[in-house]
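Notes, Module 5: Reading structure tokens.

Key idea: the token line is not a picture. It is a compressed description, and you learn to read it the same way you learned to read a sequence, by spotting repeated patterns. We will look at two proteins. The first is printed below with its tokens.
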Amino acid sequence: MYYDRARQEERAMQKEKQRPAALLITLTALLAPFAATHTGWAGDPGEVPASPAAPMLSPPNGADPCLMGALSAPLTLADAVSRALCANPKTRSAWVSIKLYAAEVSTARQSYLPDLDAAASEDRSDIHTRLNDEPFLDTRSRATYPEGSVSLSWVLYDFGERGNQLEASRELLAAAQANLDLNLQQIFLQAAADFYGAQAAQASVDAARQIEDLTQSSLSAAHERMQRGVAPISDELQAQTAHAQAVLIRVKAQAQLRYQRGALALDMGLQPDSTLTLPPADQSIVVHSDFTESLRQLIEAAKRTHPRVAVAESELAAARADERAARAHGYPTISIVGELNRSNEPLTPSLGSPSVPGSVTDKQIGIELKVPISDPLWKRGLIAQAHAQVQIQQEALYAAEQQVAADVWNAYTVLQADTDNLANSEVLLSSAHDSLEAAQHRYEGGAGSILELLTAQTAFANAQQQRIQTLSDWRIGRLALASSLGRLGLWAVRDAR
């Protein structure tokens, strides 16, 4: 009989030891739906682009547009721009900022979920009671007491503080997305400008070599005439000076070409000494207007849609939401609260009686009205700070609109001048070429002077450089106007070389 009683006590002790584990399993089951709900609120799909360049490159089937192969040979403008959009640290930083603000939106959403906490403990006791005069009444007990509790607090109404905080987070996320678009526009334009700059530098080298060959031919003709005694030595010396100057210009042009290629390589995330094969600049340009609206219409449209303005508008909306949240802060909150406690500690039925095994379960649920007392005392300063931030963002929006208007005006005016100069530079180059041919024939026939020939050569060299620069400026100016309007995209360079 003693053996059976000992086994029963041992089984009871094992059950008590297993109760905390069972309690934890129960708590886990209770928390699982809420954990799944929190996970589902991590953020809406589509808030964060797949890659920094995804908003502009529009990859098919959701593929990563930044997974590229070898460089195209010759390098195309679309390839150079795409690589620059993916490689530039500004676009990657703006992309990571979107992730940051998307996480803040998720955090703001989670404030609508209940706070559920659980606790579990296990206490071991060893109680030894001794009576000095009655030793046979001494007792000793060892026991394990598992305890567990679950508490719930769920804010039902807070006068709009959480809603405005969520709205502010969403507006900041929208600002981060617009900021990525703005950075993509700027990097796009910079890469295209460097590409056209490299093409212009390459054309300048070719033109400089042509002028160097012409001056060498003039030097040979002057030397021959001087040898025959029909021209003074000064003609040869002037031709020699012109040739040396042409060599100097060609060397500087080659250095400028290396610089432009290095800048373009850095735009694409490559080393500046990377080998780039550029196609020759197309000399034939069909002038057409991609923007048929009037200048005033272009400016008004840019104020509505430009990413710079979108950033300022979203930041202003976020500041206004923060001000409303500040006003709601310090108001009462209404919450539902609940608690469940269970303890298996032995109970004492009455004073002086021995403890007996048992358990206590305590269940509570109710509505809590929480009225802050100290918060309203300093809420005025918080509201004043939020209102001042709204005023700052209002001025920032006005400044952004003015900057956009100025950029459109400047780009439109410059492009108009560059468009007019396309025909002017072509006429200038044709006239300079004809003048040079006439001067060469006159000098070789003995009717012209060396000064006339050198002047014609200089005029032709200048006309070549102006034509090259005009073509490059027009191409860049066209993209600059699109960028100032916030409309720059691969459509502008897909067929360009």
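Here is the second protein, with the sequence above and the tokens below, as before.
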Amino acid sequence: MPSTTWDRIKEDVRVVFDRDPAARSTLEILLTYPGVHALFFYRLAHWLWRRDLKLLARFVSNIGRFVTGVDIHPGANIGHRLFIDHGMGTVIGETTDIADDVTLYQGVTLGGTGKQHGKRHPTVCDRVFIGNNANVLGNITVGENSRVGAGSVVLNDVTLYQGVTLGGTSLNKGKRHPTIEDHVVITTGATVLGPVTIGARSRIGAGSVVIHPVPPDATVVGIPGRVVRRDGVARAPGLELVDLDHGDLPDPVARAISILLEHVEKLEHKLEEHLAKAQGTVDQHPTTDDEDLQRVKAFLSEG
């Protein structure tokens, strides 16, 4: 194997010191860390796979699975400094793409959901953390700096932007992390907590904190997350199912203020009418809105 492959293996060893305080020496890591062993077998098998020695690559990969308990397909693409902690039961499928500085705990599955021969496994971007026994399935993208909590189930055609957290909320040993259904978009910095289900085709706004189940075709924003839109419209076959227009989300606070301003404006007009009648001047002069009110209206119309 070329020197670049050996450099990757050295990185795989060095990164253990950064992420596991139990690591004491390089020799200990080389002898006792199954995640490092699994990556060694993967680097060798991937090198063979790229040279079209696919049967031999699968054979080496199978030996690695037997020795380490980690099943990494030699066709997967893995970047720099992947850390697989403990490792037992971890599965990484053939068309998986893993970027740099990713952490996987034991039992993680990066799996496929279809029989097609093209891209059918996840893409995991830089600095993602995926907790133990989480399942990320299908041709989906897990955005930079995201955290997928232990036991979470993320299904196909889901888009997670950077900084998303799918976490637990209790000490129960059972199901305590979210289930994300098909075609969901969770935008930057959103947090989904507990054993809640995010319904198909829903959108979670940036920075939202979701602690309750979300129905299908819904839009959620705010802290705590509130359903502010229910589309309820089935999409025609053949149309794009994943709606990436995550900037087009309603603002419930601005909407509430707008309603209040309209009510205040109506009250002002009624008050002016009563004053005009009391003064005997039925022919009123045109009313003008307060300058502060005009500024608030302009701000809301721009936002």
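Summary for the second protein:
- Residues 253-302 form one domain.
- The helical segments are 3-19, 26-32, 34-50, 54-68, 252-278, 291-302.
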